Amino acid sequence: MNNRILKEKFVGKIMLILVIFSGVLILIMGIALYIKARPILAVKPFWELMFSLSWHPLRGEFGFLPFIMGTLWVTGIAVIIAIPFSILSAIYLSEYASKFVREWTKPLVDLLAGIPSVVYGIWGVLVIVPLIKNHIAPFFGTFSTGYSVLSAGIVLSIMVFPIIIHISLEVFNSVSNGMKEASLALGATKWQTVKYVVIRKAMPGVIAAIVLGLSRAFGETMAVLMVAGNVAKIPSSALDPGYPLPALIANNYGEMLSIPLYDSALMLASLVLLLVVLFFNIISRIVLIRVEKSTQ
Amino acid sequence: MNRNKIEETIFKILMINSTIIILIILLLILLTIILKGLPAMDWSMISQTPKGGYYLGKEGGILNAIIGSLYLAGGATILAFIISLPIVLYFKVYAKKNSKIVMFTRFSLDVLWGVPSIVYGAFGFTIMLYFGLKASLLGGIITVSLLILPIMTRAMDETIKMIPIELLEASYSLGANRIETAFKVVVRQALPGILTAILISFGRGIGDAASVMFTAGFTDNIPTSLLDPVATLPLAIFFQLNTPFPEVQERAYASAFILTVIILIISIVSRFLIKKYTKYIIK
């Protein structure tokens, strides 16, 4: 009998330890990366590294600006493409689609989320890159190898569709039926109800969904690495190659231990990625929790 | 009035079209991978390890990467499960209502879910340097288990949350204590959800490349111990695609086909399991 109680207490303690471990894991990650990034921060101030253009690891010059700009281009294009498609289909699926359509579409969207990023990368190389090289670039009268920030943006936008759709569907579903019925009872049409009640009520949650999609695009590595072109220069148009931050980290892990400060610079890049993504995630999660509370 | 009708029609067409476009893209991706991958497939791809000069177009297959990926994702899934099951049981059975620590951990796990896998890779790498570990199966398993920990925990948490409190109370009133209730009632009731969470996490683990680049290494052999480096399918695809030889690139398509088939099987099996086990649940 006593044995049972002891066992219960003991297992409870172990569980609590694991809970605390998973709760502070994110802090441990940040601290570990910061410790590794410190050597380079001791040599050069943070803002100088972030806004310097020259990337010559052998000469000890680590300017991140081209990579940051590459990331911003790629993420920006991805979000601009992803927003209309995913929001429109989320509204359709939650408000208009029949039960049959919804039941069949949702698993397919989830499947899209399950495809590994390296497969997206291959698909980008096989379909999007030639499309841009042979059709889109000549259409604008310029030349492009196809490996460009536009290709990366298109592939990324497809990768964030399921995230934005999934979360905004939940937000749309949380808008209470009573509120919709009140609007319909006042004589509003279905579309007016969607426009003035559902969308207005769900707006904060939808923005949070977009921000979560954006932060996924921001840190996505393999697919971008395969199609973005990886030239360490600030892209001047969407058809230029770019070199986003995650691709930089992934591409240079092999040589980073043989050049002084190189590993520290790459760990700093990881830390920057982590902090930006954390910032976006914390804000949008707080918004989503508020939305959930306000509809309960 | 009429303008409203026109506006609604236009938006409805736009909405239906975007949904269709998204579904067409999914089909297009699967079709491309099948059409490009299937012709490049042959039996030696999945039955042999790479022979010398494989990446120059010589003989061999990617058995090392297939087995390596299964080892790595399997090990990581088991490790993540050992950590996350106690966490979700604590949430449901041990924690007080509105406990601060539960809210904080849930939030923290949601945020962890959004952390890019390359950051996990870099973090895993620093941890391995600290412990003097080389790129190995063990390093890869630890890193990937951290990567899938938030996915698995939150997925299990969502199903366990739904279990009615009356079921737990019935168990307590029969004299069971919390630990017995947790493993004999809660786990059994949430079994389909737990199985799906495990499968989703396995799928995520087997498909991820950025986190294992630093930590698992790459090799032409099948690992025989936890401290050997290990090849993974996504990295094999990446390396094969990056060679200048068309025949090796074709093998990358075939490897991508194999990976996609694995993911599809996982997705179908998990749907089947949900259907099959849902009938054992007390409603």
Description of the molecule:
The complex is a heterodimer of chains A (296) and B (283). Chain A has one domain: MetI-like fold. Chain A is 78% helix and 1% strand. Chain A contains eleven helices and two strands; from the N terminus they run ααββααααααααα. In chain A, strands 1-2 form a two-stranded antiparallel ribbon. In chain A, β1 and β2 form a beta hairpin. In chain A, α1 crosses α11, α3 packs antiparallel against α8 and α8 packs antiparallel against α11. The two termini of chain A are 43 Å apart. Chain B is built from twelve helices and no strands. Classes of the chains: A mainly alpha (296), B mainly alpha (283). Chains A and B meet through α1, α3, α4, α5 and α6 of A and α1, α3, α4, α5 and α6 of B.
Q: Determine the CATH topology of chain A.
A: MetI-like fold
Treating each run of at least 4 consecutive H or I residues as one helix, how many helices of chain B? 12
What percentage of residues of chain A falls in helices of 4 or more residues? Answer: over 70%
| Quantity of strands of chain B, as a count | 0
- Going by CATH, the homologous superfamily of the largest domain in chain B would be MetI-like
The percentage helix of chain B is over 70%
Describe this protein with a few key phrases.
heterodimer, A: mainly alpha, MetI-like fold, two-stranded antiparallel ribbon, 11 helices, 78% helix, B: 283 residues, mainly alpha, 2 domains
Write the layout of secondary structure elements.
The complex is a heterodimer of chains A (296) and B (283).
Chain A: H1 2-43, H2 46-50, E1 55-56, E2 61-62, H3 65-96, H4 99-114, H5 117-139, H6 149-174, H7 177-185, H8 190-219, H9 222-227, H10 245-251, H11 262-295
Antiparallel strand pairs in A: 1-2
Helix pairs in contact in A: 1-11, 3-6, 3-8, 4-6, 5-6, 6-8, 7-8, 8-11, 10-11
Chain B: H1 2-40, H2 43-47, H3 63-94, H4 100-113, H5 117-131, H6 137-161, H7 165-173, H8 178-189, H9 191-207, H10 210-215, H11 233-241, H12 246-278
